[in-house]
Amino acid sequence: NIQKTRVGFRFLNTDIVNAQRQGKTVLIAFEENGGISVGGTIPYKDGFATNLKMLELAARAKLAGGTINALYDELQRDVPRPVFVRTDRHLNIRDTSVSQRYQGARGRVMQEFIRIAEDLQRRLADGEKVTLQVAEGDSRQVVEVNQLDGVYLRFADGSWIDVRASGTEALLRVYVEAPTMEANPRITQWA
Q1: Which of 48, 123, 125, 140 could form a disulfide with 155, with the two C-beta atoms 3.0–4.6 Å apart?
Q2: Do 171 and 90 contact (CB within 8 A), yes or no?
Q3: Residue 107, C-beta contacts closer than 8 angstroms, at least 6 positions apart
Q4: Rounded to whole angstroms, how far apart are CA atoms 173 and 82?
Q5: What residues does 139 pair with on adjacent strands?
C-alpha cells in the first residue's frame, strides 16, 4: 500500500505517525531530495538509521553467501525500474509585478493546469474514457487525476506526470515517470 503526500518531509512525517497510530507498519518513506525514514525508527529523515539498515542487509546477504549488489541486481530484474525525469520550466518574466501574477501555486500558469485537471476529473467522474494528447501522435488514456500537490495525471500504461509550482522560485517543476526514456520527453512536452 503506497501513500502519496505533498512535497516536504513534514507531510511524510505526519503520514508516518498517523499510519502507526492506526496500527499499520511503515516500511519506508522517502522524498525526491534523498530524505529517507526506515520503518521502526524515528518518523523523520534519519540517515543514520537508514545506513544501519543497509549494513544489516549487507550482513544478512553475506551470511547467505551473497552480496548487497546481487540483491540489488535481483530486485532490478524482478521489478524493472521506470524512467523518472524532472524538468524545471523557468518563468522568465522580467517585470516583477507581471511575474508574480503568473508564478506560484495560485498563479495564472498553475490555474490553467488546475482548470484542465478539474475538467479531466469531471469527465472521469461521468464515466467518460478520457485521453490526453501529450505530444503529436501520442495520446494517453487518463485514469487518475489529483491535486494533492500540483496537478498529477496517471495514464493507463502506468506512466504519470505531476506539474507543480516551486514554492521558492519562479518556475514549474514537471515530474514524469514512464516505462521508457523515449516516452518521458513526449509526456513532459504536454506541460
Answers
A1: 140
A2: yes
A3: 100, 101, 165
A4: 19
A5: 133
Phi-psi label, residue 184: left if phi above 0, alpha if psi -120 to 50, beta otherwise:
alpha
191: nearest Cα among 180, 178, 176? 176
Neighbouring C-alpha atoms within 13 Å toward the C-beta of 53: 13
Which grid coordinates belong to 143?
A: 485514469
Cell numbers for 67, please give them: 552480496
Global pTM value = 0.72
Q: Answer for the pair 10, 35: CB distance below 8 angstroms, yes or no.
A: no
| CA proximity to 161, closest of 145, 180, 181, 138 | 145
According to DSSP, residue 32 is labeled: T
CA distances from 135 to 84, 87, 95, 116, 172 (A): 18, 16, 31, 16, 19
List Cβ neighbours of 138 (8 Å cut-off, separation of 6 or more). Answer: 186, 187
β-partners of residue 145 are: 153
Q: Quick check: 154 pLDDT over 90?
A: yes
Long-range contacts of 118-124 (CB under 8 A, 24+ apart): 120/145, 120/153, 121/145
For residue 32, give every residue at least 6 positions away whose Cβ sits within 8 Å of its Cβ, in sequence order, or none.
7, 86, 175
Identify which of 33-37, 90-94, 99-103 has the greatest average pLDDT. 90-94
